[in-house]
Amino acid sequence: MELRSLVRCYLLMLFLPVFTCHGSISLGVTAVGFAGAALYAGFDRLRCTFYECCSPRAEWIKPNISALIAALDSNLYGQHIVHQVVPRALKAHLFNDQPHKALVMSFHGWTGGGKNYVSKFIAQTIYKLGMKSQYVHMFVSTVDFPHGEKADIYKLNLQDWIRSNVSKCERSLFIFDEIDKMPLGMINGIKPFIDYHESINGVDFRKSIFIFLSNTGGPDITRAMLKMWRDGKNRDDITMMDLEHLIQRGAFNEEGGLHKSELIQHSLVDHYVPFMPLERRHVELCAHDEIRRRGHRSSKDLIKSVADEMIYFPPENQLFSTTGCKRVAQKVGFLLANEEYDNIFN
What is the pTM of this model? Predict the structure, then answer.
């Protein structure tokens, strides 16, 4: 039966209590089923044209690893291990129709190294709307989980939130910032969702992605890098194997959200990604980008002025920036404002 006829039968049944289509009630019921399905499918496609949806036919979720690599190459400095690990881990997970478990990556290092930056690029890689996608969920521990005595309540609420959102879209992304400030034991609540389960109460969590951002492990990474630097090892020759065990040990032993956690005990974190402390040359690259972003001409003098405003450690050789590139934007804005003020009044 042609679709036009099926739709006609469906519309007739809306108004007639009893009728037969082609002399058969059963045929009429079948026609209604087909017509209803066709109408719903058409409506669903139309809706997904204008509103974000999780349908595989729509292009709201369309991973682009090449775009991620390009974004990291253009915007992330001094983190060659991140460049090597993150795109490869995402590619292996996103293009596997039957992953064994949810992808879990834990980013560790001093502030200003680019952890939030990379999280943003990952969201932009997977979702057309990036961080604004309804399938991207970001939690900041000091804002969303501020009271340690409420850890059990937070844990239950978080479980409900994850379960509800993954049931709507398997390709959900959950980012936990400042996990080192999360109430102790709370993160264990997500263990069932990142473990090796095909489904939990009918919901499959294996296509989801969880990213933890933490300052834990930062001191261990820095000490290891200082030792390798003194031994004459080139920064770009430092490997994941040189640092990953330090991060895992630090995350497990240092006070914070992952302290003695079941996630680490049961080896459910797939990748511990080190973000190394940035050197002056990396700060200068960040300053150059920020100056250009503001529409100003980048000069060596201005870049040097920005870099000079930053604080470096250890005291004897001033090797690493204490805040990475985190305060570069403020310093650039301050110096440009002074420059514009001088141009006006001098």
Answer: 0.85
* Residue 275 burial (CB count, 10 A): 30
| Close Cβ partners of 270 (under 8 Å, ≥ 6 residues apart) | 89, 101, 103, 104, 105
Q: Which amino acid is at 168?
A: K
Angle (CA) 269-261-151 rounded to 5° is: 120
Tokens of 259: 């302290």
Q: Taking Cα atoms as reference points, which of 271, 277, 278, 300 lies closest to residue 288?
A: 300
Q: Which two tokens stand for residue 113?
A: 């190294």
C-alpha–C-alpha distance, residues 188 and 190, integer Å = 5
Rounded Cα–Cα distance for residues 148 and 185 (Å): 10
Per-residue pLDDT tens, the chain, 346 aa: give them: 444 454 454 444 444 444 444 445 555 545 445 545 555 455 566 779 889 999 877 889 999 999 999 999 999 999 999 999 999 999 999 999 999 999 999 999 999 999 999 999 999 999 999 999 999 999 999 999 999 999 999 999 999 999 999 999 999 999 999 999 999 999 999 999 999 999 999 999 999 999 999 998 888 999 999 999 999 999 999 999 999 988 888 887 777 778 889 999 999 999 999 999 999 999 999 999 999 999 999 999 999 999 999 999 998 889 999 999 999 999 999 999 876 545 554 5
The token duo for 276 is: 């190394």
